[in-house]
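Sample entry was shown:

___
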Amino acid sequence: MAIGSREETPIAPTHHVVKSESTCMVIDVVLRFLLFASCIIAVVVMATSKQTERIPVTGIPGFTVPVPAKFTNSPAFIYFVVALSVAGLYSIITLITSLSFISKSTIPPKIFLILAVHDVLILGVVAAATGTAGGVAYVGLKGNSHVNWGKICNVYDKFCRYLGTSIFFSLFASLVLVILVILNASSLYKRIP
């Protein structure tokens, strides 16, 4: 060995580390399946949220017109559907990736890093979509007297229940992503000598 050169010998993983990695990958697969399921449920419930009510016309007594409420009426809800669809697609891709590494004896740390970084990015997208949809839904539920926006959930009750359910599943997806980030970060931390 020459002076100044450093030759590193690879450290063989111990049985404990291999078992720990295998357990982490099983948990990772389960969480990614839960992420997929919650994203799909949120998208389907939001996409099917439609209700038509007959609203009286001001100035003409006894005259009503049908007015539909659907998710495509709000850019926030459209963004929500697109963002959760992307998260659902991402969860399928990463679920397949995790399944391919579940039977390996050692998993490269690069995989945990890539998953953690992308999980954080998708978490940002899902959290932003949940926040925007939640804000618009809250205004629909409570109204805003400062800008004279009336509440609509007293009229479109079914529509608002669908929105609330969809936002709940989106919050669950955000929580799953937070747990995935923590899991992958801890897996990386365990590999630090």
